[in-house]
Each structure stands twice: as structure tokens, then as C-alpha cells.
Amino acid sequence: MTDAELAAHLAAIAGRILVDVRDAGVFEGKALGKAGDATANEFLCHAIRAARPDDGLLSEEEKDDTSRCAQSRVWIIDPVDGTREYGEQRSDWAVHVGLSIDGVATTGAVALPGADGGIVLRTDKVEPLPEAADTPRFLVSRTRPAKESVAVCDAMGGELVPMGSAGAKAMAVVRGEAEIYLHSGGQYEWDSCAPVAVALAHGLHCSRIDGSPLQYNQADTYLPDLLVCRPEYAKKVLELAADIG
User: Residues 149, 199, 112, 123: what is their CA dihedral angle, to the nearest 10 degrees?
Assistant: First the structure.
């Protein structure tokens, strides 16, 4: 099984596990989010270590072993991206299984178990980008929209589209549901590694909001900002973000 096949396989299974945990009706709200995170994390970590024992692993839900920083290949996972949305039984949450090679988000899969009966977007099965809308749509947090994103959207005459998890937002650009995901409110490597790998495979622009490359498998896992957008918008968005910043 290739790395991409493994990422997609594990993301899909973790998504089904999370749906089963939710549908069991035992937990609600924050308790559901906590139970889902723990269950999916246990499965993903055990499966990755069994399938790729020589690789490093970074998970949001495990204590970080920084010895991974000396390794070239490191799996970076988020068992439930959008725990709040999952706990509220919304559809805009995701499972991230990404592989960083020499600090680059190279391979991965993002499962959207609550969307269209459950789908997995992956780096080894790429579809052409749908046609862009005439008015650029900006994905923002549904609870705390980043001021830079709102300001750039206003400057471009765009439309704000509130959504939950980072993975759901990035995949909305891949799926043609929006054109731009500009985030400046703070994230961590597991929030974007798999989504960025998938977005890059589909021909999207991915960078920090100053235009610099996204780097993974760092000792400090904090990644404060992110731009995922259709390539035709990248230059304008970066220019406006620099002016606003």
C-alpha cells in the first residue's frame, strides 16, 4: 500500500469510527468531542505505527515526542479537526492524515465523514478544479472570523462563507465551494498538513500569509497563519494581506 493509499484508507476508517461513536447516542456536546478524539486517535496512532514503524508521528491528541524532528518522514494527524462541530453533530468537521517529508506536506488525505454521505479527498486521486464563482468567496471561522480575512474580503468585494474546521474549509476550496481560505487566528501543524498536501496536489496555492512556505515537523508546532486559494487569486490576496498587516 502506498503512502497516499494508507492515508486515505486510515482517514476513511477513522471517519466511520467517529460516525459510529456519534450515532451510538451515548455522548453529547463536549463529551462527544472528547470521546471521538480519543477513539479515533487510538486507532490512527496504532495503525500508523504498525504500517510505518520507522516513521515519526505527531498527533494533536498525543504528547509530542520531539525526537521526530530528526526524522525525514513524519505523519501528522488530527483525529477530529473541528471537535466543536463534531460534538454539535454538524457536518463541517474532518479527519486529517498527512505525511511530511523533509518538512513539506507531501502526501495525505482529508475525510469529510459528514459531507455527502462521507467523502475522502486525497493526494493520489486528483479531480480538476471546478469553475470559480464570479465573486470570490472567503472561508472564515463561523465563531471567530480573522480580521485580516474579513478586511481582504471587503477589499476584493468578496463574500464571507462561515464554516467549521480548517480541513473542511481547505477542502471547500478544492471542491469549488469557495475560492479563498485566509486564516490568521493561529493554528498548529496538524490543522493544515493533510489539507495542504491535498490542496497542493489539486493545484491550489498554499503558503503563509506573507507568502513564505509552510514548514512542518518543526520543534514548535504552532503555525499562526495560512493561505489556501485558487492560484489566480494568490498574488492579490498576498498583496492586500501585507498592506492590511
Answer: -170
Q: What cell does 123 get?
A: 493526494
The rounded distance, in Å, linking the Cα atoms of 7 and 228 is 21
Of residues 139, 136, 132, the one with CA closest to residue 161: 139
245 pLDDT band (50/70/90 cuts)?
A: low
Question: pLDDT band at residue 143, thresholds of 50, 70 and 90?
Answer: confident
Q: Report which DSSP code applies to 116.
A: T
Q: Which cell numbers in the block locate residue 207? A: 503558503
What is the mean pLDDT of the segment spanning 105-116? Answer: 94
The three three-digit cell numbers of residue 176, written as one number: 469549488
Q: Place 126 in a pLDDT band, splitting at 50, 70 and 90.
A: very high
Question: How do beta strands 137-141 and 159-163 pair?
Answer: parallel
Residues facing 94 on adjacent strands? 81
Residue 42 predicted with pLDDT over 70: yes
Q: 185 is written with which cell numbers?
A: 487566528
What CA–CA distances, in Å, run from 205 to 109, 121, 192? Answer: 17, 17, 13
Closest CA to 33 of 92, 77, 80: 80
Run of H or E including 80? strand 73-81
